[in-house]
Write a structure and sequence with these properties.
This protein has 230 residues and is an alpha/beta fold. It has two domains: 155 residues, P-loop containing nucleotide triphosphate hydrolases (Rossmann fold, 3-Layer(aba) Sandwich), CATH 3.40.50.300; 68 residues, no CATH class. Strand 9 and strand 10 form a beta hairpin. Helix 3 packs across helix 4 and helix 4 packs across helix 5. It is globular. 37% of the residues are buried. The structure holds adenosine-5'-triphosphate. The site of adenosine-5'-triphosphate (ATP) has 12 residues, from helix 1. It is found in: Cell inner membrane; Cell membrane. Part of the ABC transporter FtsEX involved in cellular division. Important for assembly or stability of the septal ring.
């Protein structure tokens, strides 16, 4: 589903954010991306969406070499990818319904089909009864669930999340992770960047650990004394 082949990213100014990074994610895997602040997690996610391009190496998404995609073809790539951010990036002058419908309106869906999909997405995240509300009146956990509904409303094959539980308490973080697990259970490939090592450890999934732009770990974290590589 995803392949990084010797990928390096140097930002203008000379700083190398990623160095010769290679890994593969299988279709329908759920994987965590960890690493210190500045390790390169966001950069890695941005390369998959072509928000940035590699300085060297190749990134493949669904067999497509992203180096071969022109700017004109970027929307077609992004249709396959749902993205969840830490700060939700919700519009606070629109209802919950309108926020979730936004990607479909951009795609040109007719209102009936859009309505059906928006309600299905809100139902999946348990917020069907909040569709008319403004997101500003919702709790942090609910706002994050609106962000997830918006990310999955056009049924992406790949779900990327950048610190999706960064502002949430442990119980809400577990809830959000179990939502990601539900999408993964129906075949969506999920990659989640997270600082929350305790949470990641509990979930016993594959972890890609970045350190200074390099892949320092690829395996399952069990506990501090027993770390098993895949
Ligand atoms: N647009 C940019 N221009 C220049 N340098 C950048 C840019 N974006 C990121 N960097 C640098 O690249 C490195 C990796 O940044 P990145 O945001 O990918 O790390 P991160 O692991 O996501 O960090 P955090 O956990 O703090 O969000 C950092 O040193 C950062 O300062």
């Amino acid at each position: 589903m995803i392949r990084f082949d010797q990928v390096s990213k140097r930002y203008p100014g000379g700083h190398e954010a990623l160095s010769r990074l290679s890994f593969e994610l299988e279709r329908a895997e759920m994987v965590f991306l960890t690493g210190h602040s500045g390790a390169g997690k966001s950069t890695l996610l941005k390369l998959m969406m072509l928000m940035e391009r590699p300085s060297q190496g190749q990134v493949f998404v669904s067999g497509q070499n992203l180096n071969r995609l022109s700017t004109r073809q970027i929307p077609q790539l992004r249709r396959q990818i749902g993205v969840v951010f830490q700060n939700h990036q919700l519009l606070f002058d629109r209802s919950v319904y309108d926020n979730v419908a936004l990607p479909l309106l951009i795609e040109g869906y007719n209102p009936t089909e859009a309505g059906r999909r928006v309600r299905a997405a809100l139902d999946k995240v348990g917020l069907l009864n909040k569709e008319k509300q403004n997101p500003i009146v919702l709790s942090g956990g609910e706002q994050q669930r609106v962000g997830i509904a918006r990310a999955v409303v056009n049924k992406p094959k790949l779900l990327l999340a950048d610190e999706p539980t960064g502002n949430l308490d442990p119980a809400l973080s577990e809830e959000i992770m179990s939502l990601f697990q539900q999408f993964n259970d129906v075949g969506v490939t999920v990659l989640i960047a997270s600082h929350d090592i305790a949470l990641v450890r509990r979930l016993k999934k594959r972890v890609l650990g970045l350190a200074n732009g390099e892949l320092a770990f690829d395996g399952v974290l069990h506990n501090a004394a027993n770390t098993e590589t895949a």
